[in-house]
Specification:
Length: 292
């Protein structure tokens, strides 16, 4: 089970992992907490859908997310509490944080209770969400973290055996910064040292590295499906074009709950989020050998 804040987060952060496990026959459930109503719109013909105009972006992004899920092979997708229950809060400190339906202002136990219902139904062995800073500080990402962790706590015996937080190793960031130094769409902005970024984990804190390079094309197709959010000039396409499937298809995780399984390589990283778990006996249905 993947718990994400907005449509497109699933693809950018964990798309290769989702495609990898969907292709392997695991039951992959995506829970998206908001419709992403406050996103910028990069398709000029659709600019009138913006929150301060027709305010139709959220509904439009449901279709983008559907297309992205199809590209990733993910068939079980839900919005937390149903589509439109919680609204994109916008960036930290903006008035949109105070919207009555803003996810940032959601009652924690109520929102976690909605996720708990899905956990009880799907019984995921592994849950993936963000770290306490929401990876990069967006209020909805921080709230997704809190809601997911609270739901795991509330789930008791039905709690996933392992919980992972998305992460990027410092070395990967440093390499990316060097590559993007001259780029016009530089995701690192004016920052020149990887240690100064609000994200990036020391290699020793990473627990798992999922190699989804085989599914880099699926991830790319899913990125393209989020056209209002990710323009053709985006650094994401630059990554795909310049560095290939290695940069796009390999995703890293920190382990927040559960026991690390056996790993390999210099840092002993797991190559499977189910490492150490008994996947043979798991799943609500015999067909679902494993649930993520
Ligand atoms: Zn997001």
């Amino acid at each position: 089970m993947f718990v994400h804040a907005h449509p497109d987060d699933e693809t950018i952060g964990t798309g290769a992992t989702m495609a990898h496990y969907a292709a392997a026959g695991a039951h992959v459930t995506l829970v998206t907490c908001t419709l992403g109503e406050e996103g910028e719109i990069h398709v000029p013909a659709l600019s009138g859908l913006a929150a301060d105009q027709a305010d139709q972006l959220g509904g439009y992004r449901i279709a983008e997310l559907d297309a992205a899920c199809r590209a990733l092979g993910v068939t079980d997708h839900r919005f937390l509490g149903g589509a439109g229950r919680f609204r994109d809060s916008g960036m930290m400190g903006l008035p949109t944080n105070d919207h009555p339906r803003a996810f940032w202002g959601a009652d924690l136990d109520e929102a976690a209770g909605l996720l708990l219902e899905i956990i009880r139904e799907v019984r995921p062995q592994v849950l993936v969400t963000y770290d306490p800073n929401g990876f990069y500080g967006h209020p909805d990402h921080i709230q997704a973290h809190r809601v997911a962790m609270r739901a795991v706590e509330m789930a008791g015996d039905l709690a996933p055996r392992k919980v992972y937080w998305t992460a990027v190793p410092r070395s990967v960031l440093a390499a990316g910064m060097a590559q993007f130094a001259e780029s016009s769409d530089n995701p690192f902005g004016g920052v020149s040292n990887a240690d100064d970024l609000p994200f990036g984990s020391p290699e020793s804190e990473i627990a798992a590295c999922v190699d989804g390079q085989k599914h880099a094309d699926a991830k790319l197709a899913a990125i393209e499906a989020h056209a209002t959010q990710i323009p053709p000039t985006s650094w994401l396409f630059a990554i795909a074009g310049n560095f290939g499937s290695g940069a796009l298809g390999v995703e890293h995780y920190r382990l927040a709950v559960g026991e690390k399984g056996s790993g390999s390589g210099e840092y002993g990283w797991e190559d499977d989020l189910f490492a150490g778990l008994d996947t043979a006996s798991a799943g609500a249905t015999p067909a679902a050998a494993a649930s993520a």
